[in-house]
Amino acid sequence: MAVVALTPRVRTIVVCDDISASMTEDRVFTLEGVRFEILAPALPCRTSLFLFLALSSPRKGVFPGRILLIDEQNEKALRYIKFAAEFEEDNQLMPYAVDLGACDFPSDGLYRFEVYFSIRGAEALKGEHPITVICDEE
Amino acid sequence: MRKKTQPPLRVGRLRIVVGEIVTDPTEIAAMEKMRKRLKTKRRNGSNKRSSA
């Protein structure tokens, strides 16, 4: 079976400033500062970001994942991040809040996050999400 | 033909994970190689589709 079919499906990608779970309701979350843009007062800029991922898998297990931040001007990867997605049972939808830490953006323009999952040494690109950096320099 | 129905998905609890930043040059080189390979594969796939 193909790697794409065996690895988790990325159903949602949201870039935001922070993510928290509700204190009163199970499976309810708050995403703060959902963004498609970063307004930078000066360049290069450094911003702490979270990636909210809604992942589903027909099979339980632990799947190694990677998130890459790509500069679309030169297609160079600026940041490589590893994480693991765990599914405790078959046919589960798992919400993940991945703390990406401080991400550096060297210039204004288009960037994107790429989400990969691997199984048995083979990898597949499962999702992409764009983000634009706009310089607000006076 | 009847469409295959999928079982309903059970929603799990929010997992907050701190991403591990990769700094090992060997690992980064391997990831770049993989990216290049996937990109070529995708390009070839779309070329095949458009020429069909």
Write up what this structure looks like.
The complex is a heterodimer of chains A (138) and B (52). Chain A has 138 residues and is an all-beta fold. Helix content of chain A is 3%, strand content 69%. Chain A has a five-stranded mixed β-sheet with strand order 4-10-9-6-7. Chain A has a three-stranded antiparallel β-sheet with strand order 1-5-8. Chain B is of the alpha+beta class and 52 residues long. Chain B starts with 9 loop residues before the first strand and ends with a helix. Strand 7 (76-87) of chain A pairs antiparallel with strand 3 (20-21) of chain B, so a sheet runs across the interface.
How are the secondary structure elements laid out?
The complex is a heterodimer of chains A (138) and B (52).
Chain A: H1 3-6, E1 9-16, E2 18-21, E3 29-32, E4 37-40, E5 45-57, E6 61-71, E7 76-87, E8 92-105, E9 109-119, E10 122-135
Parallel strand pairs in A: 4-10
Antiparallel strand pairs in A: 1-5, 2-3, 5-8, 6-7, 6-9, 9-10
Chain B: E1 10-11, E2 15-18, E3 20-21, H1 25-51
* Shape summary of chain B: flat
Counted beta strands of chain A: 10
Main sheet specs of chain B = none
Main pleated-sheet profile of chain A = 5 strands, mixed
Largest interface: A-B, 38 and 25 residues
Query: Overall mean pLDDT score of chain A?
Result: 94
Query: Which class best fits the helix and strand makeup of chain B?
Result: alpha+beta
What's the helix-strand series of chain B?
Answer: EEEH
Question: Which structural class matches the secondary elements of chain A?
Answer: mainly beta
**Low-pLDDT residue spans of chain B:** none
- Strand line-up across the major sheet of chain A: 4-10-9-6-7
Quaternary organization: heterodimer
Q: Over all CA atoms, what is the radius of gyration of chain A?
A: 16 Å
> Helix and strand succession of chain A?
HEEEEEEEEEE
Helix content class of chain A: under 10%
Taken from the alpha-carbon principal axes, the silhouette of chain A is: flat
User: With helices defined by DSSP (H or I, 4 residues minimum), what is the helix count of chain A?
Assistant: 1
Distance from N terminus to C terminus of chain B (CA atoms, Å) equals 26 Å
Helix content of chain B: 40-55%
